[in-house]
């Protein structure tokens, strides 16, 4: 972590995104629950100190946050600002209860509680929409983050399985970028964690036109992919192809736009 953070600071990075399960991946059933902590626990405090020392925003995808009653955990995406303050906490809505073809049977809901709220946050690199991994397969969430919550950058920290990642990872990420006209930042766990668990990897950053701007040179190894978030370029894409204006809400329903952000942005 220290090496990657130092490299990020040296490269002028303002926001560093870490993948799902960034601090811990268990090898035995229930192990994640046993180490889960509340947001004021020592694990997260360590990352808060790193953010303060480096003066960098941290997107921490997939933190094992202990539920208040201790019976289960939340799969939480935590956003820290450059002072180490928790700016946002998104608790993963869609839980991965899947029999992966040619892969493992995973039941995330056995120890994890589902979240119930969408989360966006204003940052120096744009307005972020926070998600986690399996959320990627539910375009409705990303549509609402863009057209209702005015997101400009979508974060998708993940630990995609090897089988599903090879089949669907990049195509889903690029689809979310194109259909929302947002940047997508997809930090990803990579390689074999233990005898039962292997992640696909291939972290990348995608622009609103669907172009992959940066990706780790070796998708199976830890690395750093750096790209510029250009909001002028984003607005140009949206202006030239105004899908927001062309949406037929009269046919498939309306969404309640977050006008408070639009008003504050105009000031």
UniProtKB/TrEMBL annotation:
Pfam families: CN_hydrolase. GO terms for molecular function: hydrolase activity, acting on carbon-nitrogen (but not peptide) bonds, in linear amides. The keyword Hydrolase applies. Signal peptide: none annotated. InterPro entries: C-N_Hydrolase, C-N_Hydrolase_sf, Nit1/2_C-N_Hydrolase. Residues 1-231 form the CN hydrolase domain. Keywords: Hydrolase. This is CN hydrolase domain-containing protein.
């Amino acid at each position: 972590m220290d090496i990657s953070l130092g490299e990020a600071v040296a490269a002028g990075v303002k926001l560093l995104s870490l993948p799902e399960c960034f601090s811990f991946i268990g090898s035995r059933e229930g192990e994640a629950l046993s180490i889960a902590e509340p947001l004021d626990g020592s694990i997260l405090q360590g990352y808060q100190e790193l953010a303060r020392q480096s003066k960098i925003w941290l997107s921490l995808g997939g933190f094992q946050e202990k539920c208040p009653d201790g019976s289960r955990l939340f799969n939480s995406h935590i956003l820290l600002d450059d002072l180490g303050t928790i700016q946002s906490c998104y608790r993963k809505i869609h839980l991965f209860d899947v029999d992966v073809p040619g892969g493992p049977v995973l039941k995330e809901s056995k120890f994890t509680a589902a979240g119930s709220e969408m989360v966006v946050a204003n940052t120096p690199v744009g307005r972020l929409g926070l998600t986690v991994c399996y959320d990627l397969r539910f375009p409705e969430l990303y549509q609402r983050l863009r057209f209702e919550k005015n997101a400009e950058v979508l974060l998708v920290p993940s630990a995609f399985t090897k089988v599903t990642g090879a089949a669907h990872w990049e195509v889903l990420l690029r689809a979310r970028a194109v259909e929302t006209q947002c940047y997508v930042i997809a930090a990803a766990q990579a390689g074999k964690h233990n005898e039962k668990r292997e992640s696909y990897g291939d972290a990348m950053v995608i622009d609103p036109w669907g172009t992959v701007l940066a990706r780790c040179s070796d998708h199976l190894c830890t690395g750093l992919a750096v790209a510029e978030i250009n909001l002028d370029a984003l607005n140009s894409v949206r202006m030239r192809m105004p899908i927001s204006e062309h949406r037929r809400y009269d046919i498939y329903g309306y969404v309640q736009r977050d006008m408070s952000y639009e008003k504050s942005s105009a000031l």
